[in-house]
Amino acid sequence: MKDRPRRLRTTAAMRALVAQTHVLPQQLIYPAFVREGDGDPTEITAMPGQFQHTLDSIRALACELVEAGVGGIDLFGVPDQVNKDAAGSQAWAPAGILNRAIEAVRAEVGDELVICADTCLDEFTSHGHCGVLNNQGIVDNDATLDLYARMALAQAQAGAHMVSPSGMMDGQVEHIRTVLDTHGFTDVSIMAYSAKYASAFFGPFREAVASTLCGDRKTYQQDPANRKEGVREALLDAAQGADIVMVKPASHYLDVLADVAQVVDIPVAAYQVSGEYAMIEAAARNGWINREAAIDESLVSIARAGADVILSYWALEYARRS
Ligand code: PBG
Predict the structure, then answer these.
(1) How many CB atoms lie within 10 A of CB 7?
(2) Which ligand 1 atom sits nearest the alpha carbon of residue 121?
(3) Which one, 136, 148, 163, 172, has least CB within 10 Å?
């Protein structure tokens, strides 16, 4: 027999030599939550090992990420319930928790990490939706765009290198790009959550940000049944000026990720979301899965499908052990 593919699998050194996909710490982004108030960071029950940080602990975390060689951090704000309102105005208030967190991290690590911010209102609205509601209680696309622009501007002013619109409003990338440019932030980049599906795998995230959402996001996030639509969304965002397009969630959407990676000529990100994290952690806690091997396999699979950048709650741990 001439063709014996097993020859290249004979030893660990041989397998390493011919491995076709590598996940490097520098291509990982760590999503992190920052809440208002002092005290110790609060562990998130549904995401063991992940925390709602304080302004103090997020600074320390940022230093650890730099030391481990992680590429970036994506910051999410968790305001006190009393600071939420129908429009989500703490999202663009300079003293809002997310903007203060951006400022704190930038002051701590400067340009050593790519500092990204989630540009979406759901953490800040009293109703938990990603935009403002019209008279019928439906998220009003065009009225929301101006609020995203204000939020992105506040994030740039606070020191974000990259804003990350994740609310799935039509036209959000173009609107944000215009406002950033008008105010001189031509170098602040946009990582667009382009193909974002209305997913049950965001479940644990709702606890992480103390979400008040009732109902669902199906009128703005995509239907999991739609593959081509993911490509359509990514192409629209690229045309509107996105610097990076994202597919989210990652593991259950590798087909969409591969499609998007084929058609765009800008970097593609994939977000390994809270539910993907929680499932492996829970199975590992029960002794049902080899935790590290499952984490590594999940990350390499996302990279193999075409992700240049991966958002993962395991970014720090993975970087430390690679
Ligand atoms: C919206 C946002 C969500 C996530 C990231 N940005 C929640 C949602 O769309 O319902 C989910 C991330 C995760 O599950 O890890 N601001």
Answers:
(1) 9
(2) 16
(3) 136
